[in-house]
Amino acid sequence: MQPLIKKIETLVISISVQSGIGIIEAISEKDGNKKVIFQITSKTPLMTKDGHQIGVSAIPVKAKIIAFIDSRNPLPMVSPPHTTPLLIIFDQYDKDGEVCVGAFDRQFYCDQLKLKLHVSEKTEILDLAGKRVDQNDLEGKMLFVFYDRATKSKPVQANPSKIIVTPILHNE
Fold it and tell me: Is a pLDDT exceeding 70 seen at residue 14?
Protein backbone atom coordinates (compact mmCIF):
# COMPACT_ATOMS: atom_id res chain seq x y z
CA MET A 1 0.00 0.00 0.00
CA GLN A 2 1.35 3.41 -0.98
CA PRO A 3 1.73 5.90 1.89
CA LEU A 4 -0.83 8.70 1.99
CA ILE A 5 1.90 11.27 2.47
CA LYS A 6 5.06 10.92 0.43
CA LYS A 7 8.41 12.25 1.65
CA ILE A 8 10.72 13.73 -1.02
CA GLU A 9 14.28 14.65 -0.02
CA THR A 10 15.84 17.17 -2.40
CA LEU A 11 18.56 19.76 -2.86
CA VAL A 12 17.53 23.30 -3.86
CA ILE A 13 18.73 24.49 -7.28
CA SER A 14 16.91 27.82 -7.39
CA ILE A 15 14.24 29.86 -5.62
CA SER A 16 12.07 32.53 -7.21
CA VAL A 17 8.70 34.21 -6.83
CA GLN A 18 6.24 34.30 -9.73
CA SER A 19 2.83 35.99 -9.37
CA GLY A 20 3.04 35.76 -5.57
CA ILE A 21 3.85 32.04 -5.57
CA GLY A 22 7.24 30.82 -4.38
CA ILE A 23 8.91 28.46 -6.80
CA ILE A 24 11.59 26.08 -5.52
CA GLU A 25 13.37 24.10 -8.21
CA ALA A 26 15.09 21.08 -6.69
CA ILE A 27 16.75 17.82 -7.59
CA SER A 28 16.32 14.46 -5.92
CA GLU A 29 18.98 13.83 -3.29
CA LYS A 30 19.05 10.13 -4.20
CA ASP A 31 19.10 10.60 -7.97
CA GLY A 32 20.57 13.96 -8.94
CA ASN A 33 18.99 13.76 -12.40
CA LYS A 34 15.35 13.95 -11.27
CA LYS A 35 14.06 17.53 -10.98
CA VAL A 36 10.89 18.69 -9.29
CA ILE A 37 9.26 22.11 -8.92
CA PHE A 38 7.61 22.92 -5.59
CA GLN A 39 4.99 25.66 -5.72
CA ILE A 40 4.78 27.46 -2.38
CA THR A 41 1.61 29.39 -1.56
CA SER A 42 0.89 31.48 1.51
CA LYS A 43 -0.79 28.36 2.94
CA THR A 44 2.27 26.10 2.56
CA PRO A 45 4.08 25.79 5.90
CA LEU A 46 7.88 26.11 5.62
CA MET A 47 9.67 25.07 8.79
CA THR A 48 12.99 24.05 10.24
CA LYS A 49 13.48 20.57 11.73
CA ASP A 50 12.88 22.03 15.18
CA GLY A 51 9.42 23.28 14.15
CA HIS A 52 10.07 27.00 13.63
CA GLN A 53 8.21 28.74 10.80
CA ILE A 54 10.43 30.39 8.16
CA GLY A 55 9.96 32.25 4.90
CA VAL A 56 11.01 30.95 1.50
CA SER A 57 13.83 33.52 1.38
CA ALA A 58 15.47 31.83 4.40
CA ILE A 59 16.21 28.70 2.36
CA PRO A 60 19.56 28.98 0.57
CA VAL A 61 20.44 27.44 -2.78
CA LYS A 62 22.06 23.99 -2.35
CA ALA A 63 20.17 23.48 0.92
CA LYS A 64 18.52 20.16 1.68
CA ILE A 65 14.74 20.34 1.95
CA ILE A 66 12.22 17.64 2.72
CA ALA A 67 8.84 18.04 1.04
CA PHE A 68 5.80 16.11 2.15
CA ILE A 69 3.14 15.73 -0.53
CA ASP A 70 -0.33 14.20 -0.59
CA SER A 71 0.25 11.08 -2.68
CA ARG A 72 -3.43 10.95 -3.67
CA ASN A 73 -3.00 14.10 -5.79
CA PRO A 74 -1.67 13.18 -9.23
CA LEU A 75 1.43 14.98 -10.48
CA PRO A 76 0.88 16.92 -13.70
CA MET A 77 2.37 15.26 -16.77
CA VAL A 78 4.94 18.01 -17.31
CA SER A 79 8.65 17.69 -16.96
CA PRO A 80 9.84 18.46 -14.41
CA PRO A 81 6.73 17.71 -12.32
CA HIS A 82 5.15 20.59 -10.37
CA THR A 83 3.48 20.05 -6.99
CA THR A 84 2.33 22.03 -3.96
CA PRO A 85 3.58 20.27 -0.81
CA LEU A 86 1.61 19.95 2.41
CA LEU A 87 4.77 20.95 4.31
CA ILE A 88 8.41 21.73 3.55
CA ILE A 89 11.20 21.22 6.07
CA PHE A 90 14.50 23.07 5.69
CA ASP A 91 17.01 20.52 6.95
CA GLN A 92 19.51 22.83 8.62
CA TYR A 93 22.74 21.01 9.27
CA ASP A 94 23.42 22.67 12.62
CA LYS A 95 19.95 22.08 14.07
CA ASP A 96 18.77 19.05 15.97
CA GLY A 97 15.35 17.65 15.45
CA GLU A 98 13.35 15.01 13.67
CA VAL A 99 10.12 15.17 11.73
CA CYS A 100 8.03 12.09 11.06
CA VAL A 101 4.57 11.55 9.65
CA GLY A 102 2.08 8.92 10.69
CA ALA A 103 -1.32 8.13 12.16
CA PHE A 104 -1.56 7.67 15.92
CA ASP A 105 -4.17 5.98 18.07
CA ARG A 106 -5.86 7.32 21.22
CA GLN A 107 -2.78 6.41 23.31
CA PHE A 108 -0.53 8.31 20.82
CA TYR A 109 1.05 5.15 19.43
CA CYS A 110 1.82 4.67 15.73
CA ASP A 111 2.17 1.02 14.78
CA GLN A 112 3.73 1.84 11.39
CA LEU A 113 6.50 3.95 12.98
CA LYS A 114 6.68 1.89 16.20
CA LEU A 115 6.62 5.25 17.99
CA LYS A 116 4.88 6.26 21.23
CA LEU A 117 4.39 9.98 21.85
CA HIS A 118 4.22 11.63 25.26
CA VAL A 119 2.02 14.63 24.50
CA SER A 120 2.01 17.29 27.22
CA GLU A 121 0.60 20.76 27.74
CA LYS A 122 3.91 22.05 26.29
CA THR A 123 3.26 20.30 22.96
CA GLU A 124 2.07 22.81 20.36
CA ILE A 125 -0.74 21.21 18.31
CA LEU A 126 -1.83 23.01 15.12
CA ASP A 127 -3.48 22.33 11.80
CA LEU A 128 -1.75 23.20 8.50
CA ALA A 129 -3.25 26.71 8.64
CA GLY A 130 -1.72 27.34 12.08
CA LYS A 131 -4.97 27.05 14.05
CA ARG A 132 -4.79 25.28 17.44
CA VAL A 133 -6.16 21.73 17.62
CA ASP A 134 -7.20 19.85 20.76
CA GLN A 135 -5.15 16.73 21.50
CA ASN A 136 -8.39 14.72 21.70
CA ASP A 137 -8.89 15.34 17.96
CA LEU A 138 -5.72 13.59 16.74
CA GLU A 139 -6.74 9.94 16.61
CA GLY A 140 -6.65 8.44 13.11
CA LYS A 141 -5.41 11.60 11.39
CA MET A 142 -2.10 11.87 9.60
CA LEU A 143 0.22 13.94 11.80
CA PHE A 144 3.56 15.64 11.30
CA VAL A 145 5.45 15.17 14.56
CA PHE A 146 8.46 17.31 15.54
CA TYR A 147 10.74 16.05 18.30
CA ASP A 148 14.41 16.37 19.20
CA ARG A 149 15.22 13.11 21.00
CA ALA A 150 13.76 9.64 21.23
CA THR A 151 14.47 6.67 23.41
CA LYS A 152 16.13 3.55 22.06
CA SER A 153 13.48 1.40 23.75
CA LYS A 154 10.85 -0.64 21.97
CA PRO A 155 8.61 1.04 21.15
CA VAL A 156 10.61 4.19 20.56
CA GLN A 157 9.26 7.02 22.70
CA ALA A 158 9.44 10.77 22.14
CA ASN A 159 8.22 14.03 23.66
CA PRO A 160 7.02 16.06 20.68
CA SER A 161 7.50 19.82 20.72
CA LYS A 162 5.01 20.33 17.89
CA ILE A 163 2.35 18.33 16.08
CA ILE A 164 0.77 19.49 12.83
CA VAL A 165 -2.53 17.84 11.97
CA THR A 166 -3.30 17.19 8.29
CA PRO A 167 -6.83 16.88 6.94
CA ILE A 168 -5.93 13.37 5.73
CA LEU A 169 -7.48 10.47 7.60
CA HIS A 170 -5.41 7.31 8.01
CA ASN A 171 -8.09 5.06 6.54
CA GLU A 172 -8.59 7.05 3.30
Answer: yes
